[in-house]
Design goal:
single chain, 296 residues, alpha/beta, Rossmann fold, nine-stranded mixed β-sheet
Length: 296
């Protein structure tokens, strides 16, 4: 299903002018309304609880971050201790543990956490809790890394940076990224053709898809928190190939689609199947902006 990384661009803190932040995407474009699909805060944080309903299919269909990104994350902490926020079913957790990190993962959804425990076995510790309220056991609040893969935007914006900094050792790092829809090389016309359906459902977005390397960066936000200094930003882009059934399953794991009325989902399902009737597969472009920040 997945193709390799297409583009990586790194920016150190001195060179990063954060010029892309104003280009943040709307949440609804062709399935962009979902966990970690855009750079800005979601309009309704209550949607973060919708993912538990997709626990049975989340692990097999959600996009995997490219190895280049995960290698960089692991290199920041070596074989140290990592606190992961929002692991869902453990896709990233597994890959971090395989790279030598000792991972404690905090997952809000009970069904997602149960799936993560099944997938991980004894390779990581999974705790069912809200990071906004979680407190570690005495003696455990000293992590080398706090990792949020496609979950940072769901946390309380008033407290998340302070709470992440609180659980880091001196010199520890916060690492965050999101997986967003970007333009694929073949520019499949499907994404433009499905827009009238999203418009009719009140979920349209007229802005153009960003090209690889053009997703918004959030350096200004991170440093304005007063808790972190950004030391590296890198853009990672890749493609994934889906059959029509797989693409609909992917959409069914996004929060906005999980919250749709059943009649709206039925219409979207029918229109997607109609538009893809002559296609055996669909290529979707994915992009992630990796931010690495050192605690002050």
């Amino acid at each position: 299903m997945y193709a390799g990384c297409l583009f990586v661009r790194s920016t150190n803190h001195d060179d990063n002018v954060d010029r892309r932040r104003g280009a943040a995407l709307g949440w609804f474009r062709s399935g962009n309304y979902g966990r970690g699909m855009a750079g800005d805060e979601p309009a309704d944080r209550s949607l973060r609880t919708t993912f538990d309903a997709a626990a049975d299919r989340y692990h097999r269909i959600r996009p995997r971050a490219p190895g280049t990104l995960l290698d960089r994350v692991a290199a920041v902490a070596g074989a140290g201790r990592a606190l992961e926020i929002g692991p869902a079913t453990g896709n990233v957790t597994t890959q971090l543990a395989d790279r030598g990190l000792d991972v404690t993962a905090i997952e809000l959804g009970a069904d997602l956490a149960a799936a993560a425990r099944r997938n991980l076995g004894d390779r990581a510790r999974v705790i069912t809790a809200s990071f906004d309220e979680w407190e570690p056991d005495p003696g455990e609040a000293s992590f080398d890394l706090v990792v949020a893969a496609t979950s940072w935007h769901w946390l309380d914006p008033a407290t998340k940076y302070e709470r992440a900094a609180r659980w880091l050792r001196p010199g520890g790092h916060l690492v965050i990224w999101a997986a967003s829809h970007v333009e694929a090389p073949d520019r499949d016309p499907f994404y433009a053709r499905i827009q009238p359906t999203y418009d009719a459902l009140g979920m349209g977005d007229p802005s153009a898809l960003p090209r690889p390397g053009e997703l918004p960066e959030r350096t200004s936000e991170i440093e304005a928190s007063g808790w972190f200094d950004v030391v590296e930003v890198s853009h990672h882009d890749w493609t994934a190939t889906y059959t029509p059934d797989e693409y609909l399953e992917l959409l069914s794991t996004f929060s906005g689609h999980l919250a749709m009325p059943s009649d709206d989902w039925a219409r979207l399902d029918a229109d997607i199947r109609r538009l893809l009737a002559d296609q055996t597969h669909l290529v979707r472009g994915w992009g992630a902006v990796l931010h690495i920040a050192r605690v002050r």
